[in-house]
Amino acid sequence: MKVIKAKTAGFCFGVKRAVDTVYKQVDTKCGQIYTYGPIIHNEEVVKDLEQKGVIVLRSEEELDTLERGTVIIRSHGVAKDVYPKLWSEGSFESTLILSPPGGGKTTLLRDLIRGLSDGAEGVPPHRVAVVDERGEIAVMFQGIPQMALGSHTDVLDACPKALGIPILLRSANPQVIAVDEITVREDLMAMSAAANCGVRFLATIHAADGRELGRRPLFSHLLKEKVFEKLVTIRREEGQRQYLVEELW
Hints:
The protein is an alpha/beta fold. The protein is globular and about 55 Å long. It has 9 helices and 14 strands.
């Protein structure tokens, strides 16, 4: 097997936009800049912003004491309203996240991974394994994830999903496997085989809505295999992200 090391690694579109927004605000020099919580789970970036004068607010009490300045609210934690809807009779149901490019799929995916791994909403921690084919979920650097994915999460970086899923299934004993964009039938075949072993899945896919997705042959195969039970569609209404959770079958 030939291993090719990527020349560069970076943030996904949504994270890059969030970080760029803070730096642009700093450049305007129009008063004190705050972020409500760290804008990104990356200590080096947070330290750099602090050196440029950005103050991280850690609580609502700190927020309430402000009289002036600009507060940038991060999008981490968006899974809080979605997470409880992805369970049935105490078991997590395999979930597919859908939106156009830049719609916030990876941010929601990370939040859900972290919630499953650390335990949330009264649910104990789960063993989560991530096949990070494009390096956008964990953003690994020298073997260390630059994004917080929870304390019970294993990451397989820069490996095709069709190869990585069976590797993790044999070696990591996961309860949930999370992957980035599903693009080819081989991905689904690997997921289907793992699902038959009792593993649950979290995955993302590009499409504007369920109607567009339904016109794709890959999605027809996905429905036929019944790999996923829940569909989360991310859409924008009046400038705000909305999350629609539906049953797939």
